[in-house]
Design goal:
The complex is a heterotrimer of chains A (313), B (285) and C (112). Chain A is mostly helical and 313 residues long. Chain A has helices at 3-9, 23-47, 49-52, 57-82, 89-97, 117-134, 141-169, 173-192, 204-209, 217-234, 262-269, 274-289, 291-312, and strands spanning 245-247, 253-255. Chain A has one domain (3-312): Up-down Bundle (Ferritin). A two-stranded antiparallel sheet of chain A has the order 1-2. The radius of gyration of chain A is 21 Å and the shape is globular. Chain B is mainly alpha-helical and 285 residues long. Chain B has one domain: Ferritin, core subunit, four-helix bundle (Ferritin), CATH 1.20.1260. The longest helix of chain B is centred in the middle third of the chain and has 28 residues, at 134-161. Chain B is globular and about 55 Å long. Chain C folds into two domains: 2-53, Ubiquitin-like (UB roll); 71-111. In chain C, 34% of the residues lie in helices and 18% in strands. Chain C starts with a strand and ends with a helix. The chains are: A mainly alpha (313), B mainly alpha (285), C alpha+beta (112). Chains in contact: A-B, A-C, B-C. At the A-B interface, helix 2, helix 3, helix 4, helix 8 and helix 12 of A face helix 2, helix 3, helix 6 and helix 10 of B.
Chain lengths: 313, 285, 112
């Protein structure tokens, strides 16, 4: 199939592994889905300390279940990416561990306190879910299928995040203050979650032409702010003065982008931020430490396949 | 043994009976809770994505069991805060097997420990199926239903890891380290109370009895994988086989106090005085 | 030899199991499955898989993620917050409610 045909036929779930797709499509889709998969794993790294540090048995269970789900999402997404035939899962996981793999800006920052957890669990997950719901109509069928399963599970994550937000916002004065501090720190990063405005984004045009991506950065950010600003206000959070956010007559929002630190954003995007090294370093070390187990499994698999081959011959 | 047929409900127990029931429940709940706490260290750090999901699930199973057993202690007027978050770490009654930290990448330890624990757990739950304390009997079945997966998971991994020289060597190192601590699973919190637990029929099999049966199961299996079980004499446990801290009697390793400090961190930082609940009470299910 | 057959009705949908055929090899299995399982129901694609290659685990032996209360995994447990503010969160919760109900039915049916 040539690129023109791909663009003509690009509809929801239009292409599957049996289609002969041009390399431009396969590479763009791999880049997008690999980024998504990497983000699931690195998000889980950020949240895992709070399995241990959760302040109740039920919260501990919920955090463990959520981190488990994120790894499950990684499993689904790497498979959807792998089926494009560009890279294997092992290659993508190696890239993530050695610092070549890219992932969401928010997951480059450390999360130190329990009062920060709703920033990821409610706002970032809520933002991600907004985007993921649109990707059920992606043109790469395995990606859309993965999105069906991810969106099915994700409602638990967002509600769990909001429930912690609710608990803290209605808790002691100290909890409320710590919550506001966390919000002030995370809010600009959350706004940057959707990336730069469309005219600055490099990959948008092609991805939307071939049906990989459904909505632009601006549209998604707007959809997010429309639902989540009222939520923040409901819980008594003060929206920081910067970045300035203006409400248009039609109810949509305009973010004054110059108020955001795009230099930091692009440093983060290149994995060159100081937090990037820390997060990726953890991934690298923990993956290397269990390399021996994967080797044992590989040897077992080769022996088992070899035996089956001999039996079949 | 002239076991009592049925103990009454939590409100009507004699003091001695209540102490026996509480002691048994602390053994169960603390083991499950602390083991799960350690298992969660593998979340996002397991060898593959699939094995990560599986071990996470086992951790949640164990935490769920701890929740069921702690809930029975709440019958006696305690709250979750008393049982976990504000309890003196020296009062925990788990075996030291479950409190040891995992060394980075030591998946062999995770598997060996799980195997040794789950075989003991299997025997322990069987000995509760016909407990004289009805509140325990009601909950054993649901816990047992999840233990099948744990044992299959551990044995399947053991068999595969033992296939290569490196895997077997790592299993041996882990076994040498944790086996003495596994023996503490069958140690007494207090010999008098343990005897009463048996007399009252709260448990239908004594610790010694279960410990012997456990050795008869795990030693031949581990040997069949080419591993050497570190016991001073053949298949009997002597005092010199035990580690210096046995957990059950309140003596713990330093690692336990560090762990306790870590998992109570947020509770203390926020100055909480109770634990938030999300799930319905097990009795209302 | 028996081959299990999975049919996808329309492009983009899932392949779901629809039956099986007896055939001596994969090529013959595909020919037979085309007619046996595709001749009336809308069909975009069929997968055929040797039955002996299909591993099975069923509710007799497995609890599929657990038998004790794991309600913390479900959106509807968090009933002190409201899902209706975002369509995709509400949709997720509806799907989870359905799955939870069906899961209960299977569990109670299995143990009866």
């Amino acid at each position: 199939m040539d690129l023109e045909t791909v663009k003509e036929r690009a509809g929801p779930r239009a292409f599957s592994p049996k289609d002969d797709l041009p390399v431009e499509y396969r590479e763009a889709a791999t880049r997008m889905i690999q980024f998504h998969a990497n983000s699931e794993i690195m998000g889980a790294y950020l949240e895992r300390p709070f399995i241990r540090q959760a302040p109740s048995l039920d919260r501990k269970l919920a955090f463990s279940a959520k981190v488990q789900d994120e790894i499950g999402h990684g499993q689904l997404l790497y498979r959807a990416a792998e089926s494009l035939g560009v890279k294997t899962r092992d290659e993508m996981l190696d890239e993530l561990a050695n610092g070549e793999g890219k992932f969401l800006n928010c997951f480059h920052y450390p999360m130190k306190k329990w009062t920060e957890t709703p920033m990821i669990g409610f706002f970032v997950d809520g933002a991600a879910m907004r985007r993921q719901a649109t990707l059920k109509r992606s043109s790469w069928e395995p990606y859309a299928h993965a999105m069906d399963k991810i969106c099915f599970e994700e409602g638990f994550h967002v509600k769990h995040g909001e429930d912690i937000l609710r608990e803290l916002a209605t808790g002691s004065r100290k909890e409320q203050e710590m919550l506001q501090e966390a919000f002030d720190e995370w809010w600009p990063r959350i706004i940057q979650f959707f990336g730069p405005t469309d005219d600055k984004s490099t990959h948008h045009d092609f991805s939307s032409e071939v049906g990989l991506k459904m909505m632009s950065n601006d549209e998604l950010r707007n959809a997010f702010l429309t639902a989540y600003i009222p939520k923040a206000e409901k819980y008594g959070l003060e929206i920081p003065d910067e970045p300035r956010i203006e409400k248009r007559d039609d109810g949509s929002y305009k973010v004054v982008e110059d108020d955001l630190d795009w230099e930091e954003f692009f440093t983060v995007a290149k994995n060159s931020y100081e937090g990037s090294d820390i997060q990726i370093g953890k991934r690298h070390d923990t993956q290397e430490a269990v390399e021996w187990v994967r080797n044992v499994l590989d040897q077992h698999e080769q022996a088992a396949t070899g035996a089956a081959q001999t039996a079949a011959d | 043994m002239s076991a009592i047929d049925h103990l009454s409900g939590p409100a009507d127990l004699e003091e001695d009976e209540r102490q026996a029931v509480e002691t048994l429940l602390y053994r169960l709940a603390d083991d499950e809770f602390v083991l799960a706490e350690r298992y969660t260290e593998w979340q996002v750090r397991s060898p593959t994505l699939e094995s990560d999901l599986a071990l996470s699930n086992i951790a949640q199973d164990e935490l769920g069991h701890a929740r069921l057993w702690y809930d029975l202690l709440e019958d006696f007027g305690y709250e979750e805060a008393d049982l976990i978050w504000e309890r003196d770490p020296a009062d925990f009654r788990h075996a030291t097997l479950v409190e040891l930290p995992f060394e980075g990448g030591d998946w062999a330890d995770a598997i060996v420990r799980s195997y040794l624990y789950d075989e003991a757990e299997h025997l322990r739950l069987e000995a509760l199926e016909e407990s004289s304390y009805p509140r325990i009997v009601d909950r054993v079945g649901k816990v047992q239903a999840e233990e099948r997966y744990h044992r299959e998971h551990a044995t399947n991994w053991l068999e595969r890891l033992a296939e290569t020289d490196e895997g077997r060597a790592r299993l041996q190192t882990a076994l040498d380290r944790v086996f003495p601590h596994a023996l503490t699973l069958f140690e007494a919190v207090d010999p008098d109370v343990e005897r009463r637990i048996d007399e009252y029929g709260i448990r239908t099999r004594s610790l010694e009895d279960m410990g012997e049966q456990w050795l008869e199961t795990v030693v031949p299996f581990l040997e069949s994988l080419g591993l050497e079980v570190p016991l001073s004499s053949d298949r009997t446990v002597t005092a010199e086989d035990l580690p210096s801290h046995v957990g059950r009697d309140g003596s713990h390793t330093d690692d336990w106090f560090d762990l306790h400090d870590d998992f109570t961190h947020t509770y203390r930082e926020l100055g909480r005085d109770s634990a938030d609940r999300i799930m319905p009470d097990p009795d209302d299910q | 030899m028996i081959w299990e057959v999975f049919r996808q009705e329309k492009p983009g949908e899932y392949h779901t199991h629809c039956g099986n055929v007896h055939a001596p090899d994969a090529d013959m299995a595909k020919l037979f499955a085309e007619v046996q399982h595709g001749r009336r129901k809308p069909t975009n694609s069929l997968w055929v898989v040797p039955q002996r290659e299909v591993g099975e685990v069923d509710a007799e032996e497995a609890t599929f993620g657990g038998s004790t209360d794991k309600s913390y995994r479900w959106a509807m447990t968090y009933n002190r917050v409201d899902e209706s503010f975002a369509e995709e969160v509400a949709d997720s919760q509806r799907e989870q409610e359905t799955a939870d109900r069906e899961r209960e039915e299977v569990t109670s049916g299995g143990s009866a």
